[in-house]
Write a structure and sequence with these properties.
Blueprint: E1 6-9, E2 12-15, E3 21-25, H1 33-45, E4 50-54, H2 58-70, E5 75-78, H3 83-91, E6 96-98, H4 107-119, E7 124-129, H5 135-141, H6 146-161, E8 168-173, H7 177-190, E9 196-199, H8 205-221, E10 227-230, H9 237-249, E11 258-261, H10 272-282, E12 291-295, E13 310-315, E14 318-323, E15 326-330, H11 335-351
Parallel strand pairs: 3-4, 3-10, 4-5, 5-6, 6-7, 7-8, 9-10, 11-12, 12-13
Antiparallel strand pairs: 1-2, 13-14, 14-15
């Protein structure tokens, strides 16, 4: 497990052994306070810990204070080129800045920004991707290789360090899984700053899912990564849902229903897909880490799902619910209701939630 320094983003800790936080980014026009706040609240309701928003002009900067005052989560201002927008955001109460010191006009401006961030106790995330590597590094390495991106990121870090500023988070994003693993493994060994895991331009949900599982999931399994954002086309809400799934699958979060379901075969005497879908939908409100199984027959029933808190399976002449060593047969018309009620009872009794 990698040990990193720790920064504080509002009431959320990043690094230093803190739980891995989930981030996303609004795609509304930031100056539209009502629409942006509605999206922030929706992300929060789905489990997002930190929300970033573009502060790309004066109108967006003018909206920061109102958004900060009403947001249920810490907000991050995403700034490019104009350091004055970053200073205005800091003075308006933003919890974190995302900016590359190398593109705001020289070390003098970096020092002004660093002093402002230090005064307001605001961390800065340096974000480099394949499209933002400096031209001299592209010439040196021939393209935006992982080594080129790491050197780029660390050169930005040094600009802040030269100003006595160390409240830093780093991200380096590529569009493919293998490069993501390589660049973050090397970066993890090159510094002790907290790392923001992400992949850029992952695309539609169906295209991104496997890339994210291999790239970001592989890193999380190795203990690399302190906060994550999954970038998807369209609404940012699925980003949060996928991030929660990823953290659960890699053992970093134990929250909500873990549903086990058999793949079905000719022995199946239960509509597994239909039942599993209904169970997932109707237990989405449960935060306790209950493990529930939906199995198709007695062969794949209590035997293969014995680690589950509770399970349901098909049996000759009906359905069977199994919980621990207790097995009881239930009628077709009541089985689903009994099963869901039992899951809710286990959540209360075993986990107190």
């Amino acid at each position: 497990m990698r040990t990193s320094s720790c920064v504080k983003v509002g009431n959320v800790l990043i690094g230093g052994g803190a739980d891995i936080s989930i981030q996303s980014m609004t795609n509304t026009k930031t100056h539209d306070i009502e629409a942006t706040l509605a999206q922030i609240n929706e992300l929060y309701e789905h489990g997002c810990d930190i929300v970033r928003m573009a502060v790309n002009d004066d109108a967006a900067a003018a909206a920061v204070g109102a958004l900060v005052d009403k947001s249920p989560v810490p907000l991050v201002a995403d700034i490019h080129f104009d350091y004055k927008l970053a200073i205005r955001s800091a003075e308006a109460g933003i919890s974190k800045l995302r900016i590359n010191p190398g593109n705001i006009g020289g070390q003098d401006r970096v020092r002004v920004l660093a002093d402002c961030a230090k005064a307001h106790r605001i961390p800065i995330r340096i974000g480099v991707n394949q499209g933002s590597v400096q031209k001299d590094l592209l010439r040196k390495y021939g393209s935006a290789t992982p080594d080129a991106m790491i050197e780029s990121a660390l050169s930005h870090v040094k600009m802040l360090e030269d100003c006595g500023f160390y409240d830093i988070v780093i991200s380096i994003k590529t569009a493919d899984a293998m490069s993501t693993v390589e660049v973050y493994e090397k970066l993890a060994n090159a510094c002790s700053y907290p790392l923001h895991l992400g992949m850029t331009h992952t695309g539609l949900i169906e295209d991104a899912r496997m890339k994210v599982a291999v790239g970001m999931g592989g890193l999380l399994m190795k203990g690399i990564g302190d906060t994550i954002r999954i970038s998807l086309v369209g609404s940012p809400v699925p980003e949060v849902d996928m991030a929660k799934e990823l953290l659960k699958a890699t053992g970093h979060r134990k929250e909500g229903i873990e549903l086990i379901a058999c793949p079905t075969c000719a022995r199946t005497s239960l509509p597994v897909q239909d039942i599993a879908t209904k169970v997932k939908q109707r237990t989405s409100h449960i935060k306790a880490p209950v493990k529930a199984a939906v199995m198709g027959c007695v062969v794949n029933g209590p035997g293969e799902a014995r680690e589950a808190d509770i399970g349901i399976t098909g049996a000759p002449g009906g359905w069977v619910i199994f919980e621990g060593n207790e097995v009881k047969k239930v009628s077709d018309e009541n089985a689903l209701e009994i099963f869901i009620a039992s899951i809710e009872r286990i959540a209360r009794e075993k986990y107190g939630r």
